[in-house]
Design brief:
eight-stranded mixed beta sheet; four-stranded mixed beta sheet; 17 strands; 23% helix
Length: 279
């Protein structure tokens, strides 16, 4: 997957971190094992939407559901042509191209004025309830909508859009490979947000306000919510996040070292075991 993100899409590793046990905020899913996360994208997290790739050492494969429908990459001119030339993109409507990544997620490519992650598409079982949660409770702006889908953003001019598309099956399946969307907000606003969602009739608080220690950096405070379809949303206190999210010039080197050192499949083979499939 990293070869695709770096070599095909031209993303840069922003930071890479290794952990010996699970995260109190379930950042690596429902696991209590050695894991890592790699932040990768087209620019610093402070002003760009980036991807967080988590890797659980004992897990060999995940089942992909229909919750994440695709990630749209915008690229201008020569960059668009360069990305298009590297893999067999398929034509889509509206002059978009599509390609299914090695991890099973679909990526879209389109001409744009800047190289960026332009949009993330998620599935919804009920567009009305989705809009009540994301527009009314989380106060996102509706950029556009019709009977089957809606595009939202906190700032359409500078931020990545979220597109919600009504599921063809009528349900949202997160399977075993689901993710979450994260935003930073002023830390003092986190308690009020938690109370607001607890009192609402839609969605829920998955992880109440918690402080996550980060050795060598500022601690961060987070609240993790779930919308009516159990899409997870992590709100992070901006003050701690600003320190945590600094680009690490050694990030790519640390990732390559971790990839080289990962002998987990060999270890399992010696023990006559196999890496498990996420359940």
């Amino acid at each position: 997957m990293m070869d695709f993100l770096k070599g095909t899409l031209g993303m840069k590793v922003l930071r890479h971190e290794e952990f010996e046990e699970g995260c109190e905020a379930t950042c690596n899913g429902p696991y209590q094992n050695k894991w890592s996360k790699t932040m990768i994208g087209y620019g610093p997290e402070s002003c760009n939407f980036v991807l967080e790739i988590t890797y659980n050492y004992p897990i060999d494969k995940y089942r992909v559901g229909n919750d994440i429908l695709g990630i749209t990459i915008g690229a201008p001119g020569d960059l668009f042509e360069s990305i298009r030339s590297k893999v067999d993109w398929k034509p889509e409507v509206d002059k978009k191209l599509s390609y299914v990544s090695p991890a099973g997620y679909k990526f879209f490519l389109e001409n744009d004025e800047a190289l960026r992650i332009k949009e993330v598409s998620l599935s919804t079982s009920n567009l009305t309830k989705t809009l009540e949660f994301w527009e009314t409770l989380l106060e996102m702006q509706v950029v556009s909508k019709d009977t089957s889908q809606a595009v939202l953003s906190y700032d359409p001019k500078t931020q990545t859009n979220l597109r919600f598309v009504t599921s063809e099956t009528g349900c949202v399946d997160h399977a075993t490979a689901s993710g979450r969307t994260a935003f930073s907000i002023p830390t003092p606003d986190l308690p009020a947000l938690e109370v607001k969602i607890k009192e609402a009739l839609l969605g829920s608080v998955k992880t109440p306000l918690v402080v996550l220690p980060t050795p060598g950096k500022a601690d961060v405070q987070v609240v993790i919510l779930e919308d009516p379809d159990d899409h997870e949303i992590c709100f992070v206190g901006a003050e701690g996040f600003d320190d945590l999210s600094q680009v690490d010039p050694k990030g790519d080197e640390l990732l390559e070292e971790a990839l080289e050192a990962d002998k987990s499949k060999e270890w399992f083979a010696r023990k006559k075991l196999t890496k498990g499939e996420a359940k």
